[in-house]
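Residues pack. One example:


***
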Amino acid sequence: MNVNEHELIQLAVGAAYEVSNTLECGFLEKVYRLALARELRLQGLCVETEVKYSIQYKSECAGEYFADLILERKLVIELKCVERFANEHLAQCLNYLKASGLSLALLINFQHPRVEWRKIIGRFDSR
């Protein structure tokens, strides 16, 4: 599907609300990840789950990150089931953006009856 980043955010947030309204709160993050991936695929979107990004340092792997979802190869989606977002969650999304070369992430929290979400923009110099 050919959609811009703004439309992707709208579609992802709408899908998150659909998942939340259907499942309600109380499940583990994995359940919401699988349900959200299914909901987005039902909308005809390309969704990759648990995408691995390796961080190289002097030709060796210095670490790996696993993004929950990548939507249309443009948007990182990181899911949480936490009382509230913390600085560590924002840092995690920024790390995913830097590692992936993408510039937009969506942080979604399914812990409460009403979905909480944040858009994160990261622009990094390519060296």
User: Anything to note?
Assistant: Residues 5-121 form a domain with the Lambda Exonuclease; Chain A fold (CATH 3.90.320.10).
